[in-house]
């Protein structure tokens, strides 16, 4: 028996590039083999529970626009109805994974003990649904930013009781993720930052954040959780400055607190834009340090200065992101989570389905373009040629030398190099051949 929320809609089928059906895949054929692996196994799609089911359609200037049968989200009966609808959507889309925050699943109860009890109840209910179908949990996480208790942060809060509440909350969420067979656990510091340095001890807060994350890693090993622990960079909004600004900042933080071998990154396209980067940059930085974990696929409105979390629709951007993912060996325990929401004017159930269909198709097109570029080898060939000088014995010796010896060599060999073209436009034109 279904809820009737998606009444009249059928499971989404692959119809190919000639189809004009907005509720069919044109490019995402889950069984198509790309670089020796099924497309589904490359992309590992996940639906974000929060944006698809918990978000009510508000924005900074207006309140709820969605009228869902599980609104208001204030009791366990509605929480279970929301889960029923969510799994109906997972079935329609045929996605292999979903993701959640604790606050997406269960109603806020006002106390830790009550929140834990409802989380355990709803994850038991969700677990029963998972057993009936082929779907897994890509990752779970704790929402430690929405409720007023988190206004001054969680692990970085100046109140030690709030640190304790945060630690207990993460333990409960990690237990729930482990119970559901989650493949990762994410920590996103939504308010781990500051509004002003006038009332902030930045050094102490960073130390507390580092200690907190070490506690999470220790507990992961204690309970035998085999998934990856991930942190998610975000530069701003809502805080003036957040400690997890971008991939490079997070990597430096992890190395400072001895976590570089234990924690990887969950990277979001929208957050990359807010930090002044491209998504491919953030992925390349994480991959270069062996810390690429998973991705949140979305986009921002380039005319807005905040995190609009729209579904991806730019194939060239997506193709370059997957190019660097494929070069790094692909997503291992990670996946492609649609941390994206329909617009607040898109109020019909069909909009939830169509938005994901479009996003999945864009990612499929991007993946195939990325794979074609790798098979062609043009970018790699250009890269090898540009750095060819460093393969010589004299160049390698120079890195083990000192300034005096290098100066003597420049003088004796009369080294006076001429600049060489980076050929950026030629390479950009090359990429456009594939997208």
Automatic annotation (TrEMBL):
GO cellular component: cytoplasm
EC number(s) on file: 5.3.1.5
Coiled coil: none
Classification via Gene3D superfamilies: Divalent-metal-dependent TIM barrel enzymes (3.20.20.150)
Residues annotated for Mg(2+) 1 binding in this entry: 232, 268, 296, 339
Record keyword Disulfide bond present: no
Active-site residues, as the UniProt record annotates them: 101, 104
Catalytic activity reported: alpha-D-xylose = alpha-D-xylulofuranose
Cellular compartment(s): Cytoplasm
One GO BP: D-xylose metabolic process
Gene Ontology MF annotations: magnesium ion binding; xylose isomerase activity
Binding site for Mg(2+) 2: 268, 271, 307, 309
Cofactor annotation: Mg(2+)
Alphabetic keyword roster: Carbohydrate metabolism, Cytoplasm, Isomerase, Magnesium, Metal-binding, Xylose metabolism
PANTHER family reported in the protein's UniProt record: PTHR48408, XYLOSE ISOMERASE (PTHR48408:SF1)
Subunit text: Homotetramer.
Similarity comment: Belongs to the xylose isomerase family.
Protein name: Xylose isomerase
Organism: Litoreibacter janthinus
């Amino acid at each position: 028996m279904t809820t009737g929320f998606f009444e009249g809609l059928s499971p989404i089928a692959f119809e190919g590039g000639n189809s004009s059906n907005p509720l069919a895949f044109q490019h995402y054929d889950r069984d198509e083999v790309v670089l020796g692996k099924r497309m589904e196994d490359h992309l590992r799609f996940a639906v974000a529970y929060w944006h698809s089911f918990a978000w009510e359609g508000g924005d900074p200037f207006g309140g709820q626009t969605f009228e869902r049968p599980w609104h208001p989200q204030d009791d366990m009966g509605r929480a279970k109805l929301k889960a029923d609808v969510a799994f109906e959507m997972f079935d329609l889309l045929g996605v292999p994974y979903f993701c959640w925050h604790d606050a997406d699943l269960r109603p806020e109860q006002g106390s830790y003990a009550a929140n834990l009890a409802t989380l355990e109840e709803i994850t038991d209910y969700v677990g029963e649904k998972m057993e009936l179908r082929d779907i897994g949990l890509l990752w779970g996480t704790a929402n430690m930013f929405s409720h007023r208790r988190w206004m001054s942060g969680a692990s970085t809060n100046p109140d030690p009781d709030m640190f304790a509440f945060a630690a207990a909350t993460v333990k409960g969420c990690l237990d729930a993720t482990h119970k559901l067979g989650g493949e990762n656990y994410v920590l996103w510091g939504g308010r781990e930052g500051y509004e002003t340095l006038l009332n902030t001890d930045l050094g102490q807060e960073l130390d507390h954040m580092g200690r907190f994350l070490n506690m999470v890693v220790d507990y992961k090993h204690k309970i035998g959780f085999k998934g990856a622990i991930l942190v998610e960079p975000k530069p701003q909004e809502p805080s003036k400055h957040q400690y997890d600004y971008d991939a490079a900042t997070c990597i430096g933080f992890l190395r400072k607190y001895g976590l570089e071998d234990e924690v990887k990154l969950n990277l979001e396209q929208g957050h990359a834009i807010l930090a002044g980067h491209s998504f491919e940059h953030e992925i390349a930085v994480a991959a270069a340090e062996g810390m690429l974990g998973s991705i949140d696929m979305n986009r921002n409105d380039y005319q807005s200065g905040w995190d609009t979390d729209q579904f991806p629709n730019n194939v060239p951007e997506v193709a370059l992101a997957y190019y660097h993912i494929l070069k790094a060996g692909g997503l291992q325990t990670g996946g492609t989570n649609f941390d994206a929401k329909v617009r607040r004017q898109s109020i019909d159930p069909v909009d939830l389905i169509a938005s994901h269909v479009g996003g999945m198709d864009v990612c499929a097109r991007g993946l195939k373009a990325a794979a074609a570029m790798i098979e062609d080898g043009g970018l790699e060939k250009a890269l090898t040629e540009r750095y060819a000088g460093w393969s010589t014995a004299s160049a390698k010796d120079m890195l083990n030398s000192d300034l005096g010896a290098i100066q003597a060599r420049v003088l004796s060999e009369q080294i006076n190099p001429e600049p060489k073209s980076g050929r950026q436009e030629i390479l950009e034109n090359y990429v456009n051949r594939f997208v």
